[in-house]
Amino acid sequence: MSAPTLEAIKYRRGHLEVLDQLLLPFETVYEVVRGVDDGHMVIRTMKVRGAPAIAIVAALSLAVELHVEITHRASPALATPAAVAAFVEAKLEHLKTSRPTAVNLFEAAGRLLRLVRTAATQPSATADAAGAAAVAAAYIGAAEAMLAQDIQDNKNIGRFGAEFILEHAARKGNGRVRVLTHCNTGSLATAGWGTALGIIRDLHARGGLDHAFCTETRPYNQGSRLTAYELVYEKIPSTLVCDDMVSALLKQKDIAAIVVGADRVAANGDTANKIGTYQLAITAKYHGVLFIVAAPSTSIDLETPNGDAIVIEERSPLEVTHIRGRTLDDEANVKEHDSPARVTTTSIEIAARGINVWNPAFDVAPQSLISAIVTEKGVITKAPGQDSFPIKEFLASH
Ligand code: MRU
């Protein structure tokens, strides 16, 4: 166990570790990812989660495997550029089966495969081990570049989003704002900084944040376990609410905006995000509160015309019938023995046995309920009279 941290992904060439988010906020334990099978497992079991982090960990798990196979094992199965390209394709196909809803993994897999195919068919690519190593190096370099690019994109999302919210608030005569966020979209869900939580960080850094609220986000509790952890860690003034308190919060607490992330934004702006996002968008509309989606442009899926076409992942009933946490007995142990090593994260049964369970991990907020989509390239809004987001046009011109 190491010290509390917000670093979800630790990488150096040939070595990848992810912070086990199932154990947060009570234990800080890193898990080594030795290759694609480990990468698939940590994503599937949600030890690492959040759309950008899923894509990055998947890409890097293959980078680690390729590095080991080429550099240390000189694997005969990877002796030519074509063999490396076929290997990368098969491994990416497997990684794509880990979680279906977030598009970032699919976008990254498509982009990396195109890059590898191009490298393998260059006239300069010799059909030998040296040519194979060059193709592997091209893949590894591109996967590694995703880490720095994601942080840069998040910083831009934070800046654009904060400016947008503060401009709106200024029109109402407010200089500092209260915002609500859902799920976890911060450093833990990305390479660092975060998307919707990046906007909150930016607002705080520029003195524009009065207070942040975060939902608990049942059933997996990304809000109470992860976002609350990040907010406390960063000393951002913040309050946790249960998911069913949001309408009361909007009615009573003068919230300027709800900011959420996205797992997939369809071509018309319909947005799949953590379950509960849809009801937040409805109550935001009812209360006249800005509802903002914050996501890198890699979360936009122009191939998917609208939200009805998005595959929604359904997860284990155990996430609903049980809750992860630390028991009071464990806490007493920690106090008594002053030994963090005694902390154990456990799963506690909270539902009547025999009850049926429905556990969709995501839902879709229709674009009609969304005020703006904030990307690293700028803010997409609807002009008066427009009834859907001009996403294609925006991307073409930025
Ligand atoms: O099931 P999760 O925890 O992977 O879901 C995460 C979310 O829905 C996030 O809001 C989304 O991926 C954006 S993360 C920047």
From TrEMBL:
The record marks 183 as: Transition state stabilizer. It is an enzyme of class 5 (isomerase). It holds the Pfam family IF-2B. The active site is at residue 263. It comes from the Eukaryota. Keywords: Amino-acid biosynthesis, Cytoplasm, Isomerase, Methionine biosynthesis, Nucleus. Its EC number is 5.3.1.23. It catalyses: 5-(methylsulfanyl)-alpha-D-ribose 1-phosphate = 5-(methylsulfanyl)-D-ribulose 1-phosphate. GO terms for molecular function: S-methyl-5-thioribose-1-phosphate isomerase activity. The keyword Amino-acid biosynthesis applies. HAMAP family: Salvage_MtnA. This is Methylthioribose-1-phosphate isomerase. It comes from Polyrhizophydium stewartii. The lineage of its organism: Eukaryota, Fungi, Fungi incertae sedis, Chytridiomycota, Chytridiomycota incertae sedis.
